[in-house]
Amino acid sequence: MSHGRRISQSFTGSWKEVPPPNFVSASDRDAEEWVTTWRASLARDSDSRLVAVDASTSVEDACDLLLSEGISCLAVKSSVDNTPTYSGLFDFSDVNAFLTLAATRHTLLPEDLRDNPRVDEIVTAAKAGRVPVSLVSNLSEKNPFETLPYGATVLSLLTIFARGSHRVLVQAADPTEGFIGIISDRCLLSWFSSFAKDAPSLQQYLSNPLHFLGLPSLYLYSTVVSARSSSTVLDAMRRMSEEGVSSVAVLEDESGNLLSAVSVTDIGKIVVPSESKFILSTPLHVFVSQIKDPDGSTDGVDKYPVYSVTPSSTMNYTIEKLLATNAHRLFVTKESAGSSTNTLSNFGNLSGIVSIVDILSLFARLAKIPVDPTRMQRHRRASSSSSQSSKSERDNLRSRSNSRASVKRSPSLVSSPMLLASSPPGTVGVIENSRNSISGLDAISGLSLHRKESLRSRKDGI
């Protein structure tokens, strides 16, 4: 993409928003002019590199590769007749889902495993001492394997991303040679941001405030996945895994105001390398300070990003903030009368969200592409709800039978050397009793140990 240049990733709270003008509509003539350019712009003109990992690689080594390479996603490949074949993707959402399974595995019974063959495979592999990344690829159900041909255009990307997908692999000119790159929805948003700078009419359209643009989740508080600041890291991990989202809003306990956000990337970059046995029971307000620490005030200016906008924020400002904070979504807060700065305490309660997918869907509508940005999230939530419902029904039956033996966890789930560490006696619900939420942390310790060994091997030239 010729407009693939990213804006700076640094962000300070000193940014000021320009008061939005009256609504500027997109004329049919302007929209057709924009779409003509999008139709002629090739998707492959992106600088996103594709990093692949063999399907048999352990999940620990795959996670290590994400961290050491500073990337957000890996392509999982295998070889058939000496020809590389790509079968899926692996990212921090999958890491979060895997660690959540590790930390809550003692709530599983044999019937849970029968209902979920994939989890059963992971448990079996863990008992053998090694979980291949192929089993964890798209465990979060956020990474369907999407591909586009070599000649695909920006409109092709919009069609896929408007359905809620987040990444697309682009094939080589000769399909037998595999793929030449990977494009994320964030990369496409950056492209549109650069394109708008050279298209004054689109720049004017994007100067509209959010509440003029009909975004689906702007005022839907029910769409916001949140946790209190006193909740634990494991609470947040489980919420993200069950709700099929990549971040949760962290709310102040007393006021309910937005304090910050925790994402699956934070889990991958802080929880995985941690050597602490208590990381999962850490309160979110403490964890947030750990996220903040690497971006501290080295020059006297607090660079910690504020993950929120208001309904009167312009679309231009919102796009820039998404790119600058490296976030996938921003939380929309109610207007605060008399507020002249972007301080957290002035934002008030949450009212909704705006995500990269929402904004790309707006561009898709301009191109008359059918959109359903919440389709994948509905699928993930329905899948999670179905699983939770089945488990609840079984729990009720066990409760009626009043058999203490029937509620004990299966002994077969306690013997894995890595994923399935033994639990303290009496821990039935990890989330409900956060003081015992460390019971599955041996999985993270295993990740840390393997990561150290891998890094040591690299240094020694092994």
How would you describe this structure in keywords?
disordered N terminus; 3-stranded mixed sheet; 16 helices; 462 residues
Word description of this protein:
- With 462 residues, this protein is of the alpha/beta class.
- 39% of the residues lie in helices and 13% in strands.
- The chain has helices at 28-40, 59-69, 92-104, 110-115, 117-127, 133-136, 154-161, 185-197, 200-205, 233-243, 264-271, 284-292, 315-325, 356-366, 375-401, 442-459; strands spanning 52-54, 73-80, 83-91, 147-148, 167-171, 179-184, 226-228, 247-251, 258-263, 308-309, 329-333, 350-355.
- It has a three-stranded mixed sheet with strand order 1-2-3.
- β8 and β9 form a beta hairpin.
- The longest helix is centred in the last third of the chain and has 27 residues, at 375-401.
- The protein starts with 27 loop residues before the first helix and ends with a helix.
- Mean pLDDT is 75; it is low at 2-17, 296-304, 338-347 and 379-462.
Topology overview:
Elements (H helix, E strand, L loop, with lengths): L27 H13 L11 E3 L4 H11 L3 E8 L2 E9 H13 L5 H6 L1 H11 L5 H4 L10 E2 L5 H8 L5 E5 L7 E6 H13 L2 H6 L20 E3 L4 H11 L3 E5 L6 E6 H8 L12 H9 L15 E2 L5 H11 L3 E5 L16 E6 H11 L8 H27 L40 H18 L3
Parallel strand pairs: 1-2, 4-5, 7-8, 10-11
Antiparallel strand pairs: 2-3, 5-6, 8-9, 11-12
Helix pairs in contact: 2-16, 3-10, 3-11, 7-14, 8-13, 8-14
